[in-house]
Amino acid sequence: MLIEVLKSKIHCARVTEANLNYMGSITIDEDLLDAAGMIAGEKVAIVDNNNGERFETYIIKGERGSGCICLNGAAARKVQPDDIVIIMSYALMDFEEAKTFKPTVVFPDPVTNRLV
């Protein structure tokens, strides 16, 4: 049996931009993606700590070292710049493997979104 478990999380990142006039997705600084073990095109769940919104989208790689967390397209209506979000990715794995699996959790600097 396979179950879906948390694979990685970027915890409490600050939204730097909300771009309604883009096709969709979330743009994330490449340094954060590497640290979290996430990749461009990966499906992610996003939770906005400021307003309680929860939604899914996919990742676009942002400029390395920029601290960019930009919600694009329709998702831009669910956040405001400076909101604090949690970005989570999940993986399917065998039930026994899932019992011992440890997700990767990244805690970016709350002001710059850069790795501490």
Can you describe what's shown?
This protein is mostly beta strands and 116 residues long. The protein has two helices and eight strands, in the order βββαββββαβ. It has a single domain (2-97), classed as Beta Barrel (Barwin-like endoglucanases). The protein has helices spanning 30-36, 95-100; strands at 2-14, 17-19, 25-29, 43-48, 54-62, 69-72, 84-94, 104-106. The longest helix has 7 residues, at 30-36.
Query: How is the biggest beta sheet arranged?
Result: 8 strands, mixed
- The gyration radius over C-alpha positions equals 14 Å
Outline: globular
Structural class by sheet pairing and helices = mainly beta
Overall number of structural domains: 1
Average pLDDT level: 97
Q: In percent, how helical is the residue content?
A: 10-25%
Unreliable spans: none
Quick synopsis:
The protein is mostly beta strands. It has helices at 30-36, 95-100; strands at 2-14, 17-19, 25-29, 43-48, 54-62, 69-72, 84-94, 104-106.
